[in-house]
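Module 6 notes. Inverse folding takes a fixed backbone as the condition and produces residue identities as the prediction. Think of it as a translation problem where the source language is geometry and the target language is the twenty amino acids. Below is one complete input and output pair. Work through it position by position during the lab.
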């Protein structure tokens, strides 16, 4: 292990070295591709040029930079720590948050700025921004990462600033050195403290994990469920100026598709499976907007407890996948196998909602794939386990039967 094999400067000294002109120059001489090398080989190479502890610090930076580039698709050009990178807001999510903050035309204080992911996004939009961070080494790196903002050492629970004229960002830590916590009471600062601090600011935004229990959302907050690509990134609460208390919003990035609880919702009772079926994105279900999406798609629900929607006509929306229904069978592996074999199909994709069998397990039970790929949408409708065999449709596809 890198950390054991080579002497390690304590974190603060390491951070000071990395932000120094010597550290900067040494890092600039390491190509981004070096981050993909074996860390031990990289540190051995660097020890030929640098003292051991500095070589170890540089090798760690190179490795983390490579990791960040792999994760975010470009070089962040930031000084990193493993935990700071792990906790950093994705740049596309940070940019959207920063745009919304910029529209408030208030100075911003990021009270838990970490390495500066959110802070940098604000500064890049020209927002007057300052960061607070309680960890000294992290604050040293954040100062170097976001030169347009002041970063000061402090405790977000007792911010050394008056908040009544500021928009604040709170992104509490959800992990200690060893593990991630799912208990909001164990976040740092704890959830209730964050809510309290938010209430004293003119405007505020609190980043929470995607799985946050909706009961934790205070009535004064607007809630956003933010998804990037296929993954839920966070639940974001907005309070104070610019926020609409009680509003829920689904946000899909990078396309920027949105739906809010102010949109009309489908009031119809659940209906039968029609020619088309829709599978809403996670941000829609997390925001509790399935009925609103149904209205937008001209669709109805199949079961009040299940998010699959159906309609007699196709519709396309970035917030749902559209399928043409090819067949519907009560769930039985035997029956499904027979149907697929008879039609010359195989289960290319398996989706499920309110269905007990894991997609991989179902694929295994169905045996070796032969024939054309179809999608199986496995669910429970009115207590009956049901499999919808379907074909994914894209907006550019010819409309079936038209
Ligand atoms: C999830 S990270 C923030 C990441 C940041 N939003 C970004 O995009 O880079 C949380 C940060 O808050 C800091 N922190 C935790 N408790 C704090 C407190 N009470 N006051 C100030 N900072 C705190 C942690 O040290 C950590 O760096």
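Target side of the pair, the amino acids:
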């Amino acid at each position: 292990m890198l950390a054991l094999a080579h002497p390690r400067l304590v974190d603060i000294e390491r951070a000071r070295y990395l932000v120094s002109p010597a550290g900067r120059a040494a890092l600039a001489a390491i190509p981004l591709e070096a981050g993909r090398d074996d860390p031990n080989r990289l540190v051995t190479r660097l020890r030929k040029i640098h003292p051991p502890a500095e070589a170890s610090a540089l090798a760690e930076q190179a490795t983390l930079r490579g990791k960040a580039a792999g994760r975010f698709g470009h070089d962040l050009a930031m000084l990193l720590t493993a935990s700071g990178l792990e906790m950093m807001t994705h740049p596309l999510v940070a940019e959207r948050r920063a745009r919304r903050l910029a529209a408030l035309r208030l100075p911003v204080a990021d009270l838990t700025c970490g390495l500066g992911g959110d802070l940098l996004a604000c500064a890049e939009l020209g927002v007057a921004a300052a960061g607070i961070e309680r960890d000294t080494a992290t604050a040293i790196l954040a100062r170097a990462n976001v030169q347009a903002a002041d970063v000061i050492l402090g405790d977000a629970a007792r911010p050394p600033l008056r908040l009544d004229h500021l928009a604040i960002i709170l992104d509490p830590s959800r992990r200690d050195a060893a593990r991630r916590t799912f208990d909001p009471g164990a976040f740092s600062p704890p959830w209730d403290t964050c809510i309290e601090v938010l209430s004293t600011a003119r405007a505020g935004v609190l980043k929470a994990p995607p799985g946050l229990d909706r009961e934790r959302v205070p009535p004064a907050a607007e809630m956003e469920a933010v998804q990037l690509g296929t993954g839920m990134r966070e639940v974001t609460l907005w309070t104070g100026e610019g926020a609409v208390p009680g509003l829920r919003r689904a946000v899909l990035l990078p396309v920027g598709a949105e739906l809010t609880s102010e949109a009309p919702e489908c009031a119809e009772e659940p209906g039968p499976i029609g020619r088309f079926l829709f599978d809403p994105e996670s941000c829609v279900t997390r925001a509790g907007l399935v009925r609103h999406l149904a209205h937008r798609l001209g669709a109805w629900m199949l079961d009040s407890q299940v998010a699959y929607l159906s309609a007699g006509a196709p519709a396309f929306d970035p917030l749902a996948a559209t399928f043409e229904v090819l067949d519907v069978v009560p769930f039985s592996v035997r029956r499904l196998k027979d149907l697929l074999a008879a039609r010359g199909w195989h289960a290319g994709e398996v989706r499920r909602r309110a269905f007990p069998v894991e997609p991989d397990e179902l694929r295994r039970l169905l045996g070796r794939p032969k024939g054309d790929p179809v999608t199986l949408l496995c669910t429970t409708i009115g207590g009956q386990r049901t499999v919808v065999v379907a074909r994914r449709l894209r907006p550019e596809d010819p409309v079936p039967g038209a």
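Reference fact for the lab report: Residues 1-7 have pLDDT under 50 and may be disordered.
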